[in-house]
Amino acid sequence: MHRFFLPPENIGKSRVRFPAETAHQIHAVLRLRPGHEVIVLNNGGQAFRVRLEDIRPAAVTGIILDEIPLTGEPKTHLTLFIGLTQREKFEWVLQKGTEVGVSAFIPLITRRTLVREIETAHNKQGRWQRIVQEAAEQCGRGRIPEVHLPLELPQALDYPWPGPTLRLVAWENETQNGLRQILQHLPEQPQQVALMIGPEGGLSLDEITQAQEAGWVTCSLGTRILRMETAAIVGAALTLHELGDL
Amino acid sequence: MHRFFLPPENIGKSRVRFPAETAHQIHAVLRLRPGHEVIVLNNGGQAFRVRLEDIRPAAVTGIILDEIPLTGEPKTHLTLFIGLTQREKFEWVLQKGTEVGVSAFIPLITRRTLVREIETAHNKQGRWQRIVQEAAEQCGRGRIPEVHLPLELPQALDYPWPGPTLRLVAWENETQNGLRQILQHLPEQPQQVALMIGPEGGLSLDEITQAQEAGWVTCSLGTRILRMETAAIVGAALTLHELGDL
C-alpha cells in the first residue's frame, strides 16, 4: 500500500488533506482513485489507514479508517557521519542509508574530504530531505530521517548528544575490534549509536587519534577495503543487525 | 600498494610481464616509475610483491621480490543470483558485491524482471568482468569473482552445484527466518552459499513456491523493504558477516 508522510496540520480526527505536491502524485503519477486505501504517517510515531475520498489535481482528501501499528522503525537511533562527496554518491548513501535504518545523517568535512563548500550544502538541504522522505515512504520507515548541515571533524567529534551514545569510527587499520566484538560485549543495549565513515582518502592517522581522544571507538568493517559509500551502508546495516534492529 | 591480476603466463619464476592494457595503466594513468612496488595476483590463490623494472607505454616488466599471504578472500564461496536490471544498477551491484565478498554473480530472469534480453547480456560479459576485476583489485580480493550468463528461474533453482550448498532466497513475506536464525543453527559451516535476490517487482508467490519445492530456504533481510540493489549488498554482507567471513 502507498505510504505518505503528511504535516500534522493536514491530519484531522477523521479526515486527512493531502498537500498539493502529494495530491499531484496521487492524482497524476500514481493515478489512485476514490476508494483506494493508502497509509498516512504523521512522522510523530503514528500511522493511519486512509480511504481516498475526493481526488482533484491539486487537492485530495481521505477518510481515516483506523490507526495501524508502526513497523519498520528501528529502536536504536543511528546517526551516520559521512564524508561530504560528489552528489550522486552522497545522495545514494542518503537513500540506501534510510532503507537500512539510519535515523540521522551528518555530512562530514575532514582533511581529505573532496567536497568542502558548506554553502552549497545549505542549498541542497531541501533536495536531500526529499530524498530521505521518499526513501522512508518506500521502505516502510515510521519516521523521516534528519539530514543535518555539514560539520567539520572537531565539531563532529564533540557533538552534543542528548544522551549516552556509543560512538564508532570505521578505520581500515583497526584489525581487532569488529562490530560484533564491540556490540555484543556492551553492558546494555545502546539507545543511540553514532557511526563515522571517513572520506574517499580515509581519515588521517592524527584525525583517528583525535577521535580516540574524544572517546570514539575505532572499529573494523572486515578484511576487505570498502569504498566509502559501501562502508556507510554495510556499516549501518551490520550495526543495526548486531543490535537486533535491522 | 597497487594490485594487479595478471594471466598466469605473464608470471614467471622471478619476473612478471604486464599486458599492454595494464602497462598503459601503470605508465600513463598511475605514472609509476621503476623501483615502485606493486602486488601481482595470479587469480589462482597466490600474490607476489613485485618491483617495477622496465616501464614503457605498452610494455612493463617487474622483478618478483617474494610471495605474500593472500588476505581479503572469504573462505565461503557466495554466489549471488540477482535479477537482471538496468545497466547502472546492475553494474553497481557487481562492484559493491565484489567489495563485500561475493565470489560469483548470476544474472537472473524471472517473471517480473525488467531486462530480459540474454543476447545483450552476452555482449556485456566483457564489460562486467572488467568491473569485478577492477573492484577485486581495489578492495583486496585474492580472486576475481565470476560473472555468469543470465539464467531463467527454473535453471537457477536447479543449478548443478559442485558440492553441498546452502541456498537462500530473500522474500519480503518471510517474517520468521532471519539470516542469523538460519546461519547460526547450521550443523556445520557451509563451504558454498547461494543467495537469490528477486527483481524490482519481487518474486511472485508461485516463483517462491517453486524455489521452496526445489529446496531453497526463504529468508528475511529485516523489517524494512529494501530495493533490490540494497537487498543484494546488505544480504551478501550479512551472510558473510554471520559466517565470520566479511
Structural class of chain A, by secondary structure, is: alpha/beta
Largest sheet descriptor of chain A: 7 strands, parallel
Count the strands of chain A? Answer: 12
Over all CA atoms, what is the radius of gyration of chain A? 20 Å
- What percent of the residues of chain A sit in helical stretches (DSSP H or I)? 25-40%
What is the CATH class name of the largest domain in chain A? Alpha Beta
**Largest protein interface?**
A-B, 26 and 26 residues
At CATH level 3, the topology of the largest domain in chain A is Alpha/beta knot
Mean pLDDT of chain A: 93
Elements of chain A, N to C (H/E): EEHEEEEHEHEEHEHEHEH
Q: Any guess at the CATH architecture of the largest domain in chain A?
A: 3-Layer(aba) Sandwich
Low-confidence stretches of chain A are none
Distance between the termini of chain A: 21 Å
What oligomeric state is this?
homodimer
